[in-house]
Amino acid sequence: PNVIAVLNPKGGSGKTTLAIHLAYALKEHGRTLLVDADIQGSARDWSAAGSSGLPVIGLDRPTLDRELQAIGGDYQWIVIDGASKVEKMVASGVKAADMILIPVQPSALDLWACAPLVDVIQARQQATDGRPAAAFVVVRAKKNTSIAREMRRAVEGYGLPLLPHTIYDRTLYARAITEGTTVQAMDAASEAANEIRLLTNRVLEAFD
Ligand code: ADP
Ligand code: MG
Q1: Is the minimum distance from the CB of 105 to ligand 1 under 6 angstroms?
Q2: pLDDT attached to residue 73
Q3: What is the distance of C-alpha 77 from the center of its chain?
Q4: With contact defined as beta carbons under 8 Å apart, do 140 and 173 qualify?
Q5: Which of 53, 80, 87, 187 has the fewest Cβ atoms within 10 Å of its own Cβ atom?
Q6: What is the pLDDT of residue 100?
Q7: Does 184 contact ligand 1 (Cβ within 6 A)?
Q8: Alpha-carbon distance 70 to 14, whole Å?
């Protein structure tokens, strides 16, 4: 399977929202599993709240990378909704992943909070000839602000790219999650669904 981990040690950074929407979109491109690696179990709660048709399992022990090897074979895509804070879990997610997306809200404080995660990722990349690929994604960006541009400058010192695909702050995301569904399922023609589609295409290209 192609494993994409959505990681950010900061709670409330947008991991679960991004992981759910990406997994739901990838489902159109092969069997997809969403792995809830957070003991809070938000992705499992989301799954129980609706009928998305997306398989969700909880794997919230630091043996995540090994457990995934045992069960992942049936899937073409695995998206890991990462844990907040628990450092061993983060290291395990980094090990399991072929690609890491780091959702980051458009604030320097949020970016700086990712420094320890970036260190773990870069150490892993150095030990393995560059795997996993990793990139920041700005989420909850406000329309008509220049913050995204400033983020682009701030991120340069980190040595990881910032994807040009921005996810905006939209109430539709919170509504969809609350109802156990996704923005795509609620309104396939929405701007939210469109930005998810663009990001998903970027992920698909990376595995081409
Ligand atoms: P994490 O999994 O990192 O803790 P969540 O995905 O649970 O983060 O998001 C934290 C909060 O931000 C939630 O209330 C969620 O509804 C909200 N949120 C996340 N992404 C967006 C978005 N693109 N637009 C609006 N609200 C968002
Ligand atoms: Mg979460």
Answers
A1: no
A2: 87
A3: 13
A4: no
A5: 53
A6: 98
A7: no
A8: 28
Cβ–Cβ contacts within 10 Å for residue 60, how many? 17
ipTM: 0.99
pLDDT of residue 87: 83
Strand order in the sheet with 56-58: 56-58, 32-36, 77-81, 2-6, 99-104, 133-138
Which tokens sit at 45? 């709660």
pLDDT means per 10 residues, the chain with 208 residues, are 96 97 98 96 97 95 91 93 87 95 93 93 94 96 79 86 94 98 98 98 96
Contact between 163 and 135 under an 8 Å Cβ cutoff? The reply is: yes
CA of 12 to the centre of ligand 2 (A): 7
CA 113 to chain centre: 16
How many A from CA of 139 to the centre of ligand 2?
A: 14
Between the two ends of the chain, the Cα-to-Cα distance in Å is: 13
Output the CA torsion sign for 68, 88, 180, 200: negative
Is 14 close to ligand 1, i.e. is its CB under 6 Å away?
Answer: yes
Length of the chain in terms of residues written: 208
Which tokens sit at 200?
Answer: 């998903």
